[in-house]
From TrEMBL:
Organism of this sequence: Leucobacter coleopterorum
Residues annotated as transmembrane: none
Protein's name according to its UniProt entry: HAD family hydrolase
SUPFAM superfamilies referenced in this protein's UniProt entry, alphabetically: HAD-like
UniProt keyword annotations, A-Z: Hydrolase
GO MF annotations, alphabetized: hydrolase activity
Amino acid sequence: MDPNQAAKNQAHTRRTEIECWLTDMDGVLVHENQAIPGASELLKHWRDSEIPYLVLTNNSIFTARDLSARLSASGIEVPEDRIWTSALATAAFLKQQKPGGSAFVLGEAGILTALHDAGYVMTETDPDFVVVGETRHYSFDAITKAIRLIIGGARFISTNPDATGPSPEGPLPATGSINALITNATGKTPYVVGKPNPMMFRSALNKIGAHSHNTGMIGDRMDTDIVAGMEAGLHTVLVMTGIADQAEIERFPFRPDEILGSVADLL
């Protein structure tokens, strides 16, 4: 048998043993607020079959409730308790690190709400942590304050490493770019909780009571979804409806377990 075909058969066999799923959102389920064909049907299949799943995103601007509403407007029904953001993962991590702690936050409702719900106090006075999340309104004064607090001893945490984000007009500077600015000013690098840190996947697995050996990860990016899924021990599925193309795949020394055209191929 052709070795490539044998590998495909082996991957498909493993997929039949998957009992839980994690999936990225943008580029997998939706593209520019339009549902990707097959996404709604796959989610319905998981619900009807009572398959545990979570939709993951590095976006820390929105709460899970906000994202659920945005997906619904695109024709995709995902309850808020099935959405796991880098903000929720960061809040869970900080609650574990220091219960009842305090933070100075650069970010919006997603990270602020998650930290409040985790029992954190937001303060500008001697916080335990400085947390950098996604926002469309970075303030020079707030960045300056973050730099001074980190120099003063606050621990530097970030929700995600994405250097840019998309907009209709082109790329926007995102969390990773602000992380780099603060690192340059302080000499301190942040601990980044979101993808590709496998910790985000482990916290997602904990949320749905899943185990890595029988959980799959669907993503559209080699440098976040696939590498983190691989390092977390998950069955990895790359779909070609988002960032990745064949040239992008060839850039990396590792491969996903499966490469599919879209989530429709999982039905």
